[in-house]
């Protein structure tokens, strides 16, 4: 099975602390690397994670609060100093476009690679990126400003060849793709060898949903139903439920309720308020609702499966 991993670069909230960095993650999927959010300090966290700067081809920004995007221009500038030549794509709320290009002109003039901005409509559930192996779609969220999450879905793969059976029936290499696509094999004597004898079922497609800053949304579970791994902001505990509502954030309990109602595989908590010196209190509250809950932490790598 090809790698599908989530690298946690930062899982703190807006107020800087010595324990957590601002929001940022890297999704590694089939040899491709996509960044989600890019708060201050993301470059340092990339260094610590040993992910090569040159591997990041795209970044998906959830919203325009500084702890989610202020590291972006600095990172692009560093790409230029490292001699990057491959294109770089920025997916972000459409309101950011004019300011982004002004910043690019001011701080990153003369880059030797193309930077393309893709304006995202945060109010709808739409596919904003697609290639041969995956799609990325938006998840509308409820924050103080325009904000969305992102859902990474792996596309179904073809059936797996059973090499010993291919050798047994002396099937030529030219027919391998047809068999992967479901074709039977007809021997020189006219016997039909069913595809099920030559192949096995493909691995089930995997999915990861990133839900950034948001109030609790009672219907959110419909958009992330059945995902293998869900990251949902959990800024506060039950002691601050009114504060969460006031500042358009969620509690760990509310994040767990979304995970439970969606029937996800695992839940990652993050975006912790600086008021908590030990986030295990958040974990305990989440596990009471959804046992497969985990704390995200800088440097952690989670497999999507």
Automatic annotation (TrEMBL):
UniProt entry keywords in alphabetical sequence: Endonuclease, Hydrolase, Metal-binding, Nuclease, tRNA processing, Zinc
Keyword set includes Hydrolase: yes
Active-site residues per Swiss-Prot or TrEMBL entry: 67
Residue numbers binding Zn(2+) 1: 63, 65, 143, 213
A GO MF label: 3'-tRNA processing endoribonuclease activity
Entry's family note: Belongs to the RNase Z family.
Name of the protein in its database record: Ribonuclease Z
Organism: Hoylesella oralis ATCC 33269
Organism lineage: Bacteria, Pseudomonadati, Bacteroidota, Bacteroidia, Bacteroidales
């Amino acid at each position: 099975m090809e790698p599908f991993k989530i690298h946690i670069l930062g899982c703190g909230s807006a107020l800087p602390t010595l324990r957590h960095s601002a929001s940022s993650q890297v999704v590694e999927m089939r040899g491709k690397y996509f960044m989600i959010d890019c708060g201050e300090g993301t470059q340092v966290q990339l260094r610590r994670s040993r992910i090569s700067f040159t591997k990041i081809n795209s970044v998906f920004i959830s919203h325009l609060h500084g702890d989610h995007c202020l590291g972006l221009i600095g990172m692009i500038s560093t790409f230029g100093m490292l001699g990057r030549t491959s294109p770089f794509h920025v997916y972000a709320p459409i309101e950011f476009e004019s300011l982004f290009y002004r910043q690019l002109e001011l701080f990153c003039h003369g880059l030797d690679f193309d930077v393309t901005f893709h304006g995202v409509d945060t109010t709808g559930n739409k596919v904003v990126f697609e290639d041969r192996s995956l799609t990325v779609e938006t998840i509308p969220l409820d924050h103080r400003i325009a904000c969305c999450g992102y859902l990474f879905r792996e596309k179904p793969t073809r059936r797996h060849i059973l090499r010993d059976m291919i050798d047994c029936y002396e099937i030529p290499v030219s027919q391998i793709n047809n068999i992967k696509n479901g074709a039977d094999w007809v021997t020189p004597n006219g016997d039909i060898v069913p595809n099920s004898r030559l192949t096995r079922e493909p691995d089930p497609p995997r999915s990861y949903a990133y839900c950034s800053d948001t109030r609790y949304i009672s219907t959110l579970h419909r958009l992330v139903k059945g995902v293998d791994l869900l990251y949902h902001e959990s800024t506060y505990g039950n002691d601050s439920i009114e504060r969460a509502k006031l500042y358009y954030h969620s509690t760990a309990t509310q994040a767990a309720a979304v995970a439970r109602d969606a029937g996800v595989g695992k839940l990652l908590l993050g975006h912790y308020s600086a008021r908590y010196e030990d986030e295990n209190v958040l974990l305990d509250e989440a596990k009471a609702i959804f046992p497969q809950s985990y704390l995200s932490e800088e440097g952690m790598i989670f497999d999507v499966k």
